[in-house]
Structures are given as C-alpha cells and as structure tokens.
Amino acid sequence: MPPARDANWIDGLRGIASFMVVCGHLCTALVPWLHSPAKDPKTAPHLFQLPFFRLAVGGRAAVALFFLITGYVNSIGPIAKSRAGNTDAAFNGIARSALARSGRLILPTMVATFLTWFLAQVNAYHMTKHVDAQWIRQGWHRQEPTLWMALKSLVKAETETWTIGWDEYDGTQWTLHLFLEGSMLVYMTMFATVLVKPKARLLVYAVLYLYFWQLGEGLAVGALKGLNIVFGMFVAELHNHYKDSATSVLPGPVPTLMILVGIFMCGYPQDNPQNAAWSHRMQHFMKLFAPKDADIRRYWDHLGASTVLLGIFFSRNARRVLTSPIFNFVGRVSFPVYLMHNTLIKTALTWMIYLPSAMNPPRNEKGEQMDLQRGSTVHIFIAAIVFYYILYRLAALWVAYIDPACGKVVNAVTNWMYGKAPTQSGGPILGNGTHTHEKSKSVLPA
C-alpha cells in the first residue's frame, strides 16, 4: 500500500462520521421512532432498530468519532518530534497550530452561518414552519422585518456559536466550539508533555481519562469531549510507537472483532433503552460505572467509537478500505457536509418532500391551515437520494472554492502575525487527502 494512501485512512473514517451525522439528523427529522430499540417492551423491533443495523440511521457515535479524530491527528506531530528529541520543532509546531486553529475552524463556519442567514432573510424557510416533522420545524427562522434587525441577528449568531455554543440559524453547529476547545486541550497537553518520556505521557493520559470519566458534566465536558480527545491522543501515541508495524501487531481476527464489538456499543439507543432487553442490560451495566446523573448514552458512544478506532488502527484490511477513492472523497468533503447538511434539509429536502402538500395545503373545518403532509415512502426515498447528491456536489464545490479562499485569509493573517511575507498557499483547509501524519490537522469534527 502506498504510504501516502495509508496515511489518510483517518480521512475516510472522518467521511463516514460526517455521513452518519447526516443520517442521524434525517432519522430525527423523518423517523424519530427509530432512535428507540422498539416501540415498547412488548413490540417486535423494526430492522433498523436492531443492533448493527441501527447505525445506518444513528449519528450520535459519529460525534464521538470526530473528537477521537481531533485528538489523534492534532497530537501525532508533537508526539513524533518529542520522541525524536526535537523539542524545539515540537514547541514551534504546537505554537503555530494553536494560532492557526481558530481561523481554520471559525472562518468556514462563519461563511456557512452567513449562507443560512441569507436564506432566512429571503424567506427560504417559509415552508419549514408548516411541516409535520418537528425537528425540521424547530429549525425555522423568521425573516427579519428590517435590514438593521437582520444584521444584528447575523452578528449575534456568528458570535454566540463560539460564546454560548448555539447558532440560532443552524442548531447543528453546537458542537463546533467544543471541537475548538478540544483542540486546545490537545495543544496544552502536548505543550506540557513534550519534554517527558513516552511512559510518563501515558500516565498523563490515564490521569486525564479518569478525570473526565468521573466529571460526568452533562454531555459536553466529560464523556463527549474529554474522554474522546484523550483516547485519540493515546492512539496517536500508539501510532508513533508501532509506526508501520501497527497492522501486524495483533492476530488478524482480533481487530475485526474489536470493530464489531465497537459497532455494537455504538448502537446503544438514543431513546427508551428499556424497550429492548439488550439495551436495558447495557443501561444497567453502565450505571454501575458512570457518575451519578451522567448521560450514559455518551459513555457508550465513547467506548464504542474508541473500540472501532482502535480496531481500524490495528487492521490492515480496514485501512485499505478507508483509503479507497470513495472514502478519500467523503473524507475531503466531510467538514462542508457537516456545515451545510442542516441548511439543505430545511430547504431542498423539505421542498422536495412537502411541495405536493404545499401546492394544496390541508385545512381544518375552520379553514385554518394544518401541517403540510409528506409524500409517500417512495417519494421520500427518492427525495433523500437527490438530497445526498446535492449535498455532496455542493460540498465538493466548497472544497474547490471556499476552502482555498478561507485558507488564504488564515495564511495571510498568521504570516502577518509572524512578521513573514505572504505565502501562496491556498490549498483546502481540511487537507487534500495526501497529507502526512505529522502535517495532518483535523478541523472537525468533526
């Protein structure tokens, strides 16, 4: 396997994670009952409510994957330089990465927020307010009555994404400030451990892991962000220890078994785990180890995603699959897919699914308009296929045009701060899929 292709298997995993996020949100919008393992304890489950199959419509574990990837790729370079005794280069790399990180994440997000704000101001979300899908309806935003009010709401949305973690025009951006915080956790940990030997750094990871495990603060600080970031750094340590021999360390069936067990754990249901025996047992088991009142769903997401990542890390065949052209493509466009999918759900997908009903809106006996009704199952299935085609086509255009433009801005600002002449680098912000491990920088989510 060519080194350059093997080096970007993590991009393929990132692409799968972004695809899963979109699937999860489509499920929440159109078939939210699939988030439960069964309708009730006495009802047989649907195929996509069963373990393994339910990953096709669930996206929660994908968010954990994004944090794992962030910890992994942002720590590989500093760890390699530390192990080689090149501490000056390690400190220099950490400083440069920490400075550029904010711009590489915030600038594209601001562009995405501007686009969804603009659509709201031209009333593109009008139909969204009247659909029968609650999750889509909650994403409706009014058209501001004046230009001044519209501009104020834009500034508010652009800033609150990073201050309180909420964008009123796109609620799915709530994770982005956590990714930025997670990156800074990586840089801070790397800065503090550059001078120590690898065994000492492993001890630091263990302490951090136990700290975040017992923290259990809601869904953001402990099990969602901290545990995954720390475990990602641990896998990066394994990479620098085993290097090219990682895929021959374990017997062939073991990584496969790890991936399967991880996928099973990732299938822990978002809602009503008591409705199925398998998930009810998982619920009781985790309550024995998770902090009181913690969101145990996030703990299963973490354990499942971490086991999958570890299994792929040790698996030659899994890496080969993830470095195929299709996975390289979905990996390259993963960030714009994440940024744009909610906007397209509220526009293109909503228009396709509800247009027939909107042309003849249902009304009650009083003549009041009722919720628009979606089309048939076949209609929705075809609309979803078209939606995915539009989403990935636009994401490819984003990578071709918007990413380079954002990259030039970030490079110009950082070069000015360094006191250097501007460079001509205008490559995609997320990387073009041929980066080396030391130069790899995760933007996500992930």
UniProtKB/TrEMBL annotation:
Domain Acyltransferase span(s) in chain numbering: 8-363
Keyword annotations of the record: Acyltransferase, Membrane, Transferase, Transmembrane, Transmembrane helix
Gene Ontology molecular-function annotations: acyltransferase activity, transferring groups other than amino-acyl groups
Chain segments annotated as transmembrane: 12-33, 53-73, 105-125, 174-196, 208-236, 248-268, 338-357, 378-401
PANTHER family according to UniProt: ACETYLTRANSFERASE, ACYLTRANSFERASE 3 DOMAIN-CONTAINING PROTEIN
Name under which the protein is recorded: Acyltransferase 3
Species of origin: Lophiotrema nucula
Phylogenetic classification of the source organism: Eukaryota, Fungi, Dikarya, Ascomycota, Pezizomycotina
